[in-house]
């Protein structure tokens, strides 16, 4: 899975983050994305 457009995720720190997935089948996108986003301590 490749994250595109995530050059500076530090802007997520202390922000509310909404992740929208258009198709949920295996959950691999969320399994990859959630730990990546969590590194930046969003609310």
From TrEMBL:
<keyword id="KW-0808">Transferase</keyword>
<dbReference type="GO" id="GO:0016757">
    <property type="term" value="F:glycosyltransferase activity"/>
</dbReference>
<dbReference type="InterPro" id="IPR000836">
    <property type="entry name" value="PRTase_dom"/>
</dbReference>
<feature type="domain" description="Phosphoribosyltransferase">
    <location>
        <begin position="8"/>
        <end position="43"/>
    </location>
</feature>
<keyword id="KW-0963">Cytoplasm</keyword>
<dbReference type="GO" id="GO:0006166">
    <property type="term" value="P:purine ribonucleoside salvage"/>
</dbReference>
<dbReference type="InterPro" id="IPR029057">
    <property type="entry name" value="PRTase-like"/>
</dbReference>
<keyword id="KW-0660">Purine salvage</keyword>
<comment type="pathway">
    <text>Purine metabolism; IMP biosynthesis via salvage pathway; IMP from hypoxanthine: step 1/1.</text>
</comment>
<dbReference type="InterPro" id="IPR050408">
    <property type="entry name" value="HGPRT"/>
</dbReference>
<dbReference type="Pfam" id="PF00156">
    <property type="entry name" value="Pribosyltran"/>
</dbReference>
<keyword id="KW-0328">Glycosyltransferase</keyword>
<dbReference type="GO" id="GO:0005737">
    <property type="term" value="C:cytoplasm"/>
</dbReference>
<protein>
    <recommendedName>
        <fullName>Hypoxanthine-guanine phosphoribosyltransferase</fullName>
        <ecNumber>2.4.2.8</ecNumber>
    </recommendedName>
</protein>
């Amino acid at each position: 899975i490749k994250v595109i457009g995530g050059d500076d995720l530090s802007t997520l720190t202390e922000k509310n983050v909404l992740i929208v997935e258009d198709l949920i089948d295996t959950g691999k996108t969320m399994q990859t994305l959630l730990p990546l986003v969590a590194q930046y301590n969003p609310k």
